[in-house]
């Protein structure tokens, strides 16, 4: 028997003993208010004894190695990728901060690519290169990474879907696969929280 059910049964047994005692005291002149109080108090104890605490929205900073380890372990997680100086990243973070209380079950991991030295070799390129080891490692994981903010959905260690960019007016992100560079003209959009909570 799990501890919650055992606790409820113990509480119920205690209530029966209390009621039995209360009835005997009532016969001896106990005031009806005490019996009523006992009857009202017990259901509250039973309900509160086994309530589960809701988790809170969290963001945990990670490194590329952390992401690689989680993927190799077959984890399911959401990875938010940002960088300093990204206005859309800041706008999305402000929106998340304002509304996170309505979404307590969401857990994000955040990767900061500011120091990855990610650049296009040529202006028309659809992919980036990096001169840093961490940047190179990141591009091995996500070779078509091009824009921030980006949120990668990892399912059982594999990332097949990304939410890229952030529309400050509609609070939407653009959906794309992880096997090609996003085309914003053909990408579908979805509300940020809808994406995070599905």
Account of the protein in words:
By secondary structure, the chain is α+β, with helices and mostly antiparallel strands. The chain folds into 2 domains: 3-49; 58-197, Glutaredoxin (3-Layer(aba) Sandwich), CATH 3.40.30.10. 40% of the residues lie in helices and 23% in strands. It contains 6 helices and 9 strands, in the order ααβαβαβββαββββα. The strands form 2 sheets. It has a 7-stranded mixed beta sheet. Strand 7 (158-167) and strand 8 form a beta hairpin. The longest helix is centred in the N-terminal third of the chain and has 25 residues, at 3-27. The chain is globular. The relative contact order is 0.12. Mean pLDDT is 84; it is low at 1-8. It comes from Faecalibaculum rodentium. InterPro entries: Thioredoxin-like_sf (IPR036249). This is Bacteriocin transport accessory protein.
Topology readout:
Layout: H1 3-27, H2 32-49, E1 58-61, H3 64-72, E2 77-82, H4 87-99, E3 107-112, E4 118-119, E5 129-130, H5 133-141, E6 150-155, E7 158-167, E8 172-177, E9 188-191, H6 192-197
Helix pairs in contact: 1-2
Protein name: Bacteriocin transport accessory protein
Organism: Faecalibaculum rodentium
């Amino acid at each position: 028997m799990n501890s919650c059910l055992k606790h409820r049964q113990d509480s119920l047994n205690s209530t029966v003993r209390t009621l039995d005692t209360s009835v005997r005291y009532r016969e001896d002149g106990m005031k009806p208010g005490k019996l009523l109080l006992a009857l009202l108090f017990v259901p509250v104890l039973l309900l509160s004894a086994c309530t589960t605490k809701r988790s809170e929205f969290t963001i945990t900073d990670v490194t590329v190695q952390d992401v690689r380890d989680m993927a190799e372990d077959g984890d399911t997680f959401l990875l938010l990728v940002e960088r300093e100086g990204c206005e859309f990243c800041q706008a999305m973070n402000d929106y998340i901060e304002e509304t996170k209380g309505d979404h307590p079950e969401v857990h994000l991991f955040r990767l900061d690519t500011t120091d990855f030295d990610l650049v296009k070799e040529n202006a028309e390129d659809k992919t980036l290169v990096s001169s840093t080891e961490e940047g190179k490692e990141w591009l091995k994981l996500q070779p078509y990474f091009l824009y921030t903010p980006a949120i990668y959905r990892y399912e059982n260690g594999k990332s097949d879907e990304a939410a890229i960019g952030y529309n400050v007016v509609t609070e939407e992100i653009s959906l794309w696969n992880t096997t090609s560079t996003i085309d914003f003209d053909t990408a579908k959009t979805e509300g940020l929280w809808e994406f995070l909570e599905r």
